[in-house]
Structures are given as C-alpha cells and as structure tokens.
C-alpha cells in the first residue's frame, strides 16, 4: 500500500521515465541519461531532473557510477521480484 501511494505521487512524465528504465532493463540495456534522453526525445538535463524528482518521492531506483563518470540507472531487483511494470501501472490506477 505504501508503495502504491508513492507511485501515485508521480506525474505522468515521471512515470514515463520510470517505466522506460524498467522496459529498457528488461531488454538488457545498460540505462543511462543519454539513452533515456534519446528514447524519450528529451534533453539529458530534463532526464536528470525527472530522476531527482522520482528519487525524492521515495520511488526505488538505483544510481551507480561506471568508470567513475557514467551514471547507470536501474530498478532494484527486489522490487522487480515483487512487482512487474504492469503491476506498478495498475497500482497507480487504484
């Protein structure tokens, strides 16, 4: 229930960014700001802003640095075990 409330707080655009990360990961992509920006036709600055907002709302999202510069984004594995992307989207609609 707590997770549902957090996901309901996301704007449509923030949810689009989050679900895109989820889908790209499922397709075995290493997700970074650049890839998201290209996929969503947004600037990297916009993507960084959305990621910051998503994380500030308490949504589970991992940021790791690769080679001390490139930031990789991923959905925590424990969340993926409990909730598929469809489940998360359905929770938002409740």
Q: Helical region count?
A: 6
- Which overall shape is indicated by the principal axes computed on the Cα atoms? globular
Q: CA-to-CA gap between the ends?
A: 10 Å
Low confidence ranges = none
Number of strands: 3
Q: Mean pLDDT across all residues, rounded? A: 92
Q: Kindly estimate the percentage of residues that lie in beta strands according to DSSP.
A: 5-15%
Order of strands, widest sheet: 1-3-2
Largest sheet composition:
3 strands, antiparallel
Helix content: 55-70%
* Radius of gyration using CA atoms only: 13 Å
Query: What is the helix/strand order?
Result: HHEHHEEHH
Structural class: alpha+beta
């Amino acid at each position: 229930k707590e997770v549902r409330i957090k996901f309901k707080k996301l704007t449509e655009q923030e949810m689009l960014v989050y679900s895109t990360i989820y889908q790209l990961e499922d397709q075995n992509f290493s997700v970074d700001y650049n890839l998201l920006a290209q996929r969503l036709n947004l600037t990297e600055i916009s993507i960084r802003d959305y990621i910051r907002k998503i994380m500030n709302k308490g949504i589970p999202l991992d940021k790791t640095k690769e080679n001390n510069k490139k930031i990789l984004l991923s959905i925590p594995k424990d969340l993926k075990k409990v909730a598929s992307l469809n489940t998360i989207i359905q929770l938002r609609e409740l």
